[in-house]
Design a protein that fits this description.
The complex is a heterodimer of chains A (318) and B (169).
Chain A (H helix, E strand, L loop, with lengths): L4 H30 L15 H11 L10 H18 L18 H22 L3 H32 L4 H7 L10 H14 L11 H4 L9 H26 L10 H22 L5 H31 L2
Helix pairs in contact in A: 1-9, 1-10, 2-9, 3-4, 3-9, 4-5, 5-7, 5-11, 7-9, 7-11, 9-10
Chain B lengths: L2 H21 L3 H21 L3 H26 L3 H10 L2 H24 L13 H8 L4 H21 L8
Helix pairs in contact in B: 1-2, 2-3
Classes of the chains: A mainly alpha (318), B mainly alpha (169).
InterPro entries (chain A): NADH_UbQ_OxRdtase_su1/FPO (IPR001694), NADH_UbQ_OxRdtase_su1_CS (IPR018086)
Protein name (chain A): NADH-quinone oxidoreductase subunit H
Pfam families (chain A): NADHdh
Chain lengths: 318, 169
């Protein structure tokens, strides 16, 4: 079945927005469950309309730009972050026939390029707010995201070497016999940790650590501009989950059930895992975060590359 | 959209953004225009059939180096006095000379483009990541090794500068 491209684009966009919005509610419910309290359960059945209530609240709040802010950059920052995350979804192959550019031959690099651009959103938000807390949050975000991007890139090289392609479609096809999470276990762990740092989620949410920085880089944001940061963060979580699914968990592959369902099950499982991590782990200190990255994750990902290369050469009989 | 049109469009965006980089008084705004210029350059690479180079341009230049520039500008946190001083430098007497020289260069470039074989036309072959890798570690091996020496030297000196001073181990 060939679906026309505009429909694919619109449906994928709507699905990403839907997942991002619903996961805000799911997160609060699950956190409530983990912490032995009900969570939001008043609006609609099981509190499902809480998302709608939140959206209405955010849309009707006064859209305010502080007079001391750098106005154009202040407006640009949330848009950049949001666009970058949405564009990343373009290269994810959801099923063999459902992706916007899943067989792009530089697909994985495109994801990295967009992640690199997403850094600007937090950095510029921090700078343009003209607020000390926001600036500190922005600087932390820049250092954290640039460092963890390095380990993320290195941890993926094992997958690229084994699959022999940057195209996410080919990477999924290469996993038809064995998911890469088994031969690339080290890489998968490093990628997961770097992914949490990249989306600055708890336990790595130092750019917005509320007990020391107010709300960090988005202290001055309100209304729908804050909502865009918020949605971009949850879309980012869905993005990292979709990437781990594609790169390490065999993408759409799986027995009996249709491909789309397998993809959805894996992504939802990983999103719930992200939420569990938030509930389970305390936040490290900033210097601990950086030294953990450079002193543990960097050597581990390099060892992973060397081992993968050696094994591949050995198998090729060189 | 034909290739010629898109190449021209991206080229114009790159040139306009670069002009904005030179004329902005606020360093962060100038840096943002520079990012736009680099992105336009990446689009140009991609439409000329080099997607790998395009992605590296975004990852390395726009995504890493420019972020570091923005980071440093944020750290020094230049205020209003610097901005007014910067504005006072953008005067006709300052930009006239360089503009004449740049215009001369531009005429030479247009002349050369008009008379050489540089006009490629639409027969563009796409160079994928595999082809780039094969040529980097084939005929250009020596250059790659030299570049890696240079980067290693840079890494060692950065490590030396960044060491903890007067701290007992």
């Amino acid at each position: 079945m060939i679906v026309p491209m505009p429909i694919i684009i619109v449906v994928t966009f709507a699905a990403v927005m839907g997942v991002a919005a619903v996961s805000t509610m799911v997160e609060r419910r699950l956190l409530g469950f983990f912490q032995d309290r009900p969570g939001p359960n008043r609006v609609g059945p099981f509190g499902m309309f809480q998302v709608v209530a939140d959206a209405v609240k955010m849309l009707f709040k006064q859209d305010w730009v502080p007079p001391f802010a750098d106005k154009p950059v202040f407006l640009l920052a949330p848009i950049v972050g949001f666009m970058a995350v949405l564009l990343e979804f373009g290269v994810i192959p959801i099923t063999p026939h459902w992706s916007i550019a899943g067989d792009l031959n530089v697909g994985l690099l495109f994801v990295f390029a967009m992640m690199g651009l997403a850094v600007y959103s937090v950095v510029l938000a921090g700078w343009s707010s003209n607020n000390k807390f926001a600036l500190l949050g922005g600087m932390r975000a820049a250092a954290q995201m640039i460092s963890y991007e390095v380990f993320m890139g290195l941890s993926l090289l094992g997958v690229v070497m084994t699959a022999g392609s940057f195209s996410l479609h080919d990477i999924v096809l290469a996993q038809s016999r064995c998911w890469f999470v088994i031969p690339q276990f080290l890489g998968c762990i490093v990628f997961l940790i770097a992914g949490i740092a990249e989306t600055h989620r708890l336990p790595f949410d130092l750019p917005e650590g509320e007990n020391e920085l107010g709300a960090g880089f988005h202290t001055e944001y309100s209304g729908m501009k804050f909502g865009m940061f918020f949605l971009a963060e949850y879309a980012g979580v869905a993005m990292i989950s979709a990437l781990i699914t594609t790169l390490y968990l065999g993408g759409w592959g799986g027995p009996i059930l249709p491909p789309f369902l397998w993809f959805a099950i894996k992504v939802v499982f990983l999103i719930c895992f992200f939420i569990l991590l938030r509930a389970a782990l305390p936040r490290p200190r900033y210097d601990q975060l950086m030294s953990f990255g450079w002193k543990i994750l960097l050597p581990v990902s390099l060892i992973n590359i060397v081992l993968t290369g050696a094994i591949l050469l050995w198998q090729a009989g060189a | 959209m034909s290739v010629d049109f898109s190449v021209g469009l991206y080229g114009l965006i790159a040139i306009a953004a670069t002009a904005m980089v030179i004329t902005r008084a606020r360093p962060v705004h100038a840096l943002l225009y520079m990012v736009v210029a680099l992105l336009a350059l990446a689009c140009l690479f991609d439409s000329l059939g080099a997607p790998f180079a395009a992605m590296l341009d975004v990852i390395v230049y726009a995504g890493a180096i420019m972020v570091l520039f923005v980071f440093v500008v944020m750290m020094i946190n230049l205020g209003q006095p610097d901005e007014t001083r910067e504005r006072s430098w953008i005067t006709p007497s300052n930009w006239f000379g360089p503009s004449v020289l740049a215009a001369l260069l531009l005429t030479t470039l247009i002349f050369a483009l008009g008379h050489g074989d540089a006009a490629t036309g639409p027969n563009i072959t796409e160079v994928g990541p595999t082809a780039v890798g094969m040529s980097l570690f084939g005929p250009y091996m020596l250059t790659v090794e030299l570049a890696s020496f240079l980067l290693l030297a840079g890494l060692v000196s950065a490590f030396h500068i960044g060491r903890a001073l007067g701290e007992k181990r």
